Structures are given as structure tokens and as C-alpha cells.
Amino acid sequence: MKVIFKFWLILGVLIILSPLGLLLPAHFKAGSAWGEWGADTFKELVGYIPRGLEKFSHLWSAPIPDYAFKGWEEKGLGYLSFAYIVSAIIGVLVIVCVVLLIAKFLNKKSNL
Q1: By the 8 A CB rule, do 85 and 17 touch?
Q2: CB neighbours of 21 closer than 8 A, spacing ≥ 6?
């Protein structure tokens, strides 16, 4: 098997397994994923919101908040699992496109 095929196969398996992120925190009562906290969760954890986080948190909102489509947050596990998989696919596609654009730019630059 070629290395590229193995890479995409493993990446595909990881995408399919991404909904485990829904099950494991609930099973272990872990709450939200470490470091993916909003200002409100941060305040619960440490007792205050750091000035910089409070000042700049409104500048960015995730394109797919909580890896679910708008209105799907309260739907069943099947819907949320599907949204996790779609979110993973979109993330991989964005990263692949950015890497290919950078490679194309660097290739043109080296041919000069």
C-alpha cells in the first residue's frame, strides 16, 4: 500500500471516530474539552474572566459552534455524530486547501 493511501485511510478512520468526542466526556463526566472554553466556562473554572479574553472574545465566533449545525444542539446523538463528521471533513478540506496553496506558492517562488 502506498503511504499516501495509508495516510488518507487513517485520516478517514479518525474522521469517522470523531463522534467519540460526544460519548467519552459524558461517560467520564469530563465536561467540555480542555481548552475549548468560552468566557462563561472559564469564569466557572477559575472564578474570573481574564481581561484580554473578555476584551477580545467577541471578535471571533466559530463557523460551526460546538461542531454542530445551528438548531442541532438539542437533537439526538445521531444528528450530533453526523455534524461532528461533517465538521471534521470540512476542517480537513480547509487544511488541505491551505497546504496546497502554500505549496503552489512556494513552488512558483523556487522556479524563479
Answers
A1: no
A2: 33, 67, 84
**Grid-cell match 472559564, residue found:** 42
Structurally, how many domains does the chain consist of? Answer: 1
C-alpha cell at 4: 499516501
Q: Residue 108: exposed, middle, or buried by beta-carbon count in 10 A (0-12, 13-18, 19+)?
A: exposed
Asked whether residue 66 carries a pLDDT value surpassing 80, the answer given is no
Contact status, residue 72 vs residue 83, Cβ threshold 8 Å: yes
Tens of pLDDT, residue by residue over 82-112, are 998 999 999 999 999 999 999 999 988 776 6
Phi, psi of 54 (to 5 degrees): -65, -40
What is this structure's pTM?
Answer: 0.74
Q: Which of 19, 32, 6 is nearest to 88 (CA)?
A: 19
Segments forming the whole domain that contains residue 93: 3-110
What whole-number distance in Å separates Cα of residue 37 and Cα of residue 67? 14
Amino acid in the structure at residue 38: G
Q: Count how many residues are written for the chain.
A: 112
